[in-house]
Amino acid sequence: MYPITLSTSNASGGAVTTVPIALDPFMSQFQATIACTVTGTANYTVQYTLDQIQADGYSPSTGNWITVTGLGTQTTSQAVALNQPVMAIRMVQNSGAGSVSMTVLQTGAGN
User: What is the side-by-side order of every strand in the sheet holding 78-82?
Assistant: First the structure.
């Protein structure tokens, strides 16, 4: 897949959440790199889910989201690699008037 970038800004009035980015958990060598860049002052968390986000009636707001190790309540630019299959990734800007840009790149061998 090509890199996908989503951004949030100005969470000073409350948390701002991106839409989920669907990944392919069925790749035989699942790998996903997540890089977040902070501009200004911002606090963010990146989460993943094993929910089937493309199922009829699915709502991300009531989904089962788990914090990505190394990307919980961060205030600086960070990057991590995931090697276990997940269904989707999203980012929550918890606070701050700055902005956060998250880029996700999934690679691996096809089936």
Answer: 4-9, 99-107, 31-39, 78-82
* Tokens of residue 91, six digits: 């980012």
For the chain, the DSSP string reads ---EEEEEE--TTS-EEPPPEE--TT-TT-EEEEEEEEESS-EEEEEEE-S-TTSTT--GGGS--EEPTT-SSB-S-EEEEE-S--SEEEEEEEE-SSEEEEEEEEE----
Triad 39, 42, 44: Cα angle to 5°? 115
pLDDT tens column, 26-56? 988 999 999 999 999 999 999 999 999 999 9
Of 90, 107, 111, give the one whose Cα is nearest residue 15: 90
In whole angstroms, how far apart are CA 21 and each of 18, 41, 103? 9, 24, 10
pTM over 0.85: yes
